[in-house]
Amino acid sequence: MSNLLEISQVSKYFGDKHTRRCVLSNVNLRVQPGEFVCLLGPSGCGKSTLLNAIAGFIKPESGLISVNDQRVSKPGPDRGFVFQKNSLLPWMTLDQNVGYGLKIQGLSKEKIRNRVDHFLDLVGLLGYRKSFPHELSGGMQQRGSIVRALITNPKVLLMDEPFGAVDAQTRIILQEMLLGIWAQVGITIIFVTHDIDEAVLLADRIVVMGVNPGHIKEIFDVSLKRPRSADSTFLDEFREIKLRVLRSIREETDKLMIAV
């Protein structure tokens, strides 16, 4: 199977000539169509920087990032992005927010409405289509942000700790919802998280990133059967994978503690 996303020898620096530091060093990764890949590692390992480079928000100093054999040089409709905090526009209703990208594409009002209703129904928000963001709970706002990113049919969905700001119970609901959408839509997802349980529950592969500078340390295949749910976290296989990943990350965390 051909790769949808290719990252080849990517390095990124921050700061001027006096404070210049390497935050990503020689990163190489290939992701196939329909894969769910989680980027995991301690704070400061470059997870979000790598995600922003894939999105085209920042440019690496060296290396190549391509989606569908097209070099990434700026943001584009082939890559949807979901931030940690919802990015819904407060002056628009939920259906206006979700359908905004389709409006920019020039679709008819009828097509926009049909597609918006379909996606809102996928996440259980159809009854809230005329609500403004402040009238929705945090979890509902984030569901709206996810479908807004999905509705324009991007090739890759990039998610930067999208469930980090919600409570534990809502987080489980959102994780299971995302797994259901992913299974139905079949999109490729690159998902940044600090949560090992979340990564094992969601991912086909977990990419553990190391520190000083940020690099790919180890990649774990997650062979847990699908479909998965919160019940999967009680399986012996789940705990075994979690322990292996935890050991890998702990080595990087120890490096940070020694550096301090």
| Total of DSSP H or I helical runs spanning 4+ residues | 7
> How many E-type strands?
10
Q: What value does the average pLDDT take?
A: 93
Name the poorly predicted regions.
Answer: none
Percent strand: 15-25%
Q: Given the helix and strand composition, which structural class is it?
A: alpha/beta
The first-to-last residue Cα distance is: 44 Å
Main sheet characteristics: 6 strands, mixed
How are strands sequenced across the largest beta sheet?
6-7-8-3-9-10
In sequence order, what are the helices and strands, one letter per element?
EEEHEEEHHHEHEHEEH
The outline comes out as globular
Instruction: Please give the share of residues in helix.
Output: 25-40%
How many whole angstroms does the radius of gyration measure?
19 Å
Outline:
The protein has helices spanning 47-55, 94-104, 109-122, 138-150, 168-185, 196-202, 236-259, and strands at residues 5-14, 21-31, 36-40, 62-67, 70-71, 79-82, 156-160, 188-193, 205-210, 215-221.
